[in-house]
Input
Amino acid sequence: MAVTVWLFLVVGLLSIGYSFFLNARHRRLRREGVPVQGVVVRHVRHSGGEGGSTYHAVVNFTDADGNPREYQIPVSGVKGLPVGGQVPLLYLPGAPNKVRVALASKRRQEIAIPAVVGSLFIATAVFFMSGVAQRHG
Output
């Protein structure tokens, strides 16, 4: 049981740390990023467990050097990102492979998901460490 609690704490802290990392990267992109327009060319289906699937938009864009690029948006869902639709993107100068969507809603989702997951893991660990589970189980 103690190993499980520590595992939940570590996973929770790593998830929250990752959300802080993503937030810092987005702030840097807003300050230093090169803005480009992308076009959604397709949606990729990823099979999840228990019959669930997620869809991720794939965006084509041209970097500042004129090179064609492709980027798969890490946050699932296609609402608001139809095929043929334009998507504002930002990437770091000299690093067009480090691109992100310049939409506040997608940015918030990308940062919030690991933060929420991490918080749930930490809350579960604290619940078990407090002994509440032992008194009621």
